[in-house]
Design a protein that fits this description.
The chain has 148 residues and is mainly alpha-helical. It has one domain. Helix content is 65%, strand content 7%. It is built from 9 helices and 2 strands. Strands 1-2 form a two-stranded antiparallel ribbon. Helix 5 packs antiparallel against helix 7.
């Protein structure tokens, strides 16, 4: 474990703080939510009562999860960072070679991220205990989040 941390330091990399990762998460959730509401505006907001709106939104949860997976996969694969991470100047790299994650690694990480969310964010909380600040989805995909 400590050899890994030494290797990271030797490469001149610094792990992103949990605070930066938290803000990036918040920014990305706002963006995904806005995209979701734009896509489904006509379906949700034509309904007259709050109860019907909530029922409509609940029926679309699968689409929201799919949107999150597509968003995370594309940005991590193509840019090594989501817009939230770009704003906070942090990025995702593969643990083995410190390179931009491949498509499959990015997809694996995105699916793991959604699962962590569904499990009461326990996968995110894990980063507080991990020396490399890895969440469950980072561990699953063998990625690190570092400062740019």
């Amino acid at each position: 474990m400590f050899d890994d941390l030494e290797k990271i330091e030797r490469e001149g990399l610094t792990l992103a703080s949990l605070q930066a990762r938290g803000w990036a998460f918040f920014i990305d959730e706002v963006i995904v939510s806005l995209i979701f509401f734009i896509i489904f505006w006509d379906f949700i907001f034509v309904l007259k009562t709050p109860e019907k709106m909530i029922e409509a939104i609940n029926s679309l949860v699968g689409y929201l999860l799919l949107l999150k997976i597509i968003y995370q996969t594309f940005f991590v694969w193509y840019y090594a960072a989501t817009p939230g991470k770009m704003i906070l100047k942090i990025e995702v790299i593969e643990e083995r070679d410190f390179q931009t994650p491949s498509f499959l690694v990015s997809l694996n990480r995105a699916i793991g991220r959604v699962i962590s969310e569904m499990l009461f964010y326990l996968g995110f909380a894990w980063a507080f205990l991990d020396p490399k600040r890895q969440t469950w989805h980072d561990k699953l995909a063998k990625t690190l989040v570092v400062n740019v």
